[in-house]
Structures are given as C-alpha cells and as structure tokens.
Amino acid sequence: MRIDSITAADPDGRRTINGTILKPGAPVYDKYVGNHAPMGKSQNPVQYVDSPFDRTLCACGCGSQTPSGRSFIAGHDQRAIHDWIAKVGGVVAFLAWFDRTWTQTN
Q1: Which of 12, 14, 39, 55 pairs with 64 at a CA distance of 20 to 30 A?
Q2: What is the pTM of this model?
Q3: Its domain of life (predicted)?
Q4: pLDDT, average across residues 29-38
C-alpha cells in the first residue's frame, strides 16, 4: 500500500492508514509481493526492514543515500552550511547578506 495519509488517533489510540493498494509494476510490489520476506520468521506480525525505497539523496548534494527519514548523512548538514557561507565570502559577509535579505515574514 502507498500511504497517502494517517488519521489522528481515535480515543482508543488507534489510527487509520489511508492509501492506494499497489499493483504489479509498482517497484515495491514487484520487489516484495510473491517473494520471500526480507526478514526471517517471527511471531511479531509487524517488522521493520531497511528498504532501499526509503532512502533519498543527501540534501548537501554529495550524491550519497541517506537513512530513512533523514535529509542529510551525519555531519553533511554542517558541511552544506559551511559551503554556502563560503560562497557568500565567509561568516561576516554571510551575516551581512542575511541581515539585508531576511524579513520576519520569511
């Protein structure tokens, strides 16, 4: 299922997952449906697996894949900040530029 939304918790704590049932041709369907489960047998009906479909490219532009739910690989957020500050001409120039361009409505 492709998850489109998850409702707020009911008084009993349950939530409803809304989405579209995947069909043949969808990458996740083709990888998992009808194939062996990516984890071993377990009595727990819900298990989480590190899936290549959960990864995105690091937002710093290095081209590496990030862990699920993350925008940056560890430390790459700082690398990106320092690279952008250097593009403006250093910390003092960056602060001056920021003060000129930032408005409270941003």
Answers
A1: 39
A2: 0.49
A3: Bacteria
A4: 86
